[in-house]
Amino acid sequence: MKSDDLDSAIEQSHAALSAILKGDPSLYKALYSHTEDVTLGNPFGPYARGRKQVEATLEGAASHYRDGEGTGVELVAKYVSDGLACVVEVERGRTKVGGAEELVAVAVRVTSLFRLEQGAWKLVHRHADPITTPRPASSVISR
User: Rounded to two decimals, what is the model's pTM?
Assistant: First the structure.
């Protein structure tokens, strides 16, 4: 396991961010493991589990964005063991959301888990949500 290989996978995830903000989920799909234990949680719905659900969820998320790009990533933490790595980041970009015609700034906090599979780091879990600033305690109440 070489750390530069993991760094390359992380860079690929940053390229995938720019692609999905253009409406293209293909780079995330390519980065994900082809195993059935993969998971994805995003701001648009519940967790997806399994390759087929993850791909469908990526496509759904991509359909909400267009004409965008990633503008920066803040590394919060990175943990690496022999075959598993966890990366915690804040991802930022500009994109058109939904049917809007204006580019807007977007930011999500992200936790990504990578697993070493046959010499390559593959994404096995990604959780992204828009909570990047303090919120009141009442924000956790289900409505």
Answer: 0.93
